[in-house]
């Protein structure tokens, strides 16, 4: 049985716009972001990175985002360091970002968000956002290296850009992304919905027969809804057929 939490039907739904900014938002969130129950945030030391993330988040979703100065504890230096935070409260955005990565947004368990394969512009935005968070650009040749302990994530990314990838055992792995990766011709666009799929599966635990009683006669009417033969009853999808 199809079902959705009734309270979520009242929340504001976002109009998500695919493109470079959308890809950057997803990539940076996969690398350095936090997806909570009803919020999405990014806390980094680089003000430029935080500003780009805020601008792309607003461009892709329409949500207002701004930078906030914060402090972050440094275990290496044993003192607090200045940083910048971008945080927006939106359960819809949090849910849809979890959907993109397979349901679990934890950096070690997230899957590769194939929604960013819509076109080259979106995918390039993803690469830029992910590399800004978990990578670095090389000084002496045109390319970047991204670092992650999530081996399946990097392996899937490597296949898309046609790169060789050798995971390291017991430590973070690296994937080299040359700026000329497109010449390999390995990128294939895919069509995935950018909007949230809100239906869920609900288990029917019991069906009780009900017998009409009483001497008074009654009439049962059936009807059909057109063009949308369905409606929600307390979050449950009901289809009417005559």
From TrEMBL:
<dbReference type="InterPro" id="IPR027434">
    <property type="entry name" value="Homing_endonucl"/>
</dbReference>
<protein>
    <recommendedName>
        <fullName>DOD-type homing endonuclease domain-containing protein</fullName>
    </recommendedName>
</protein>
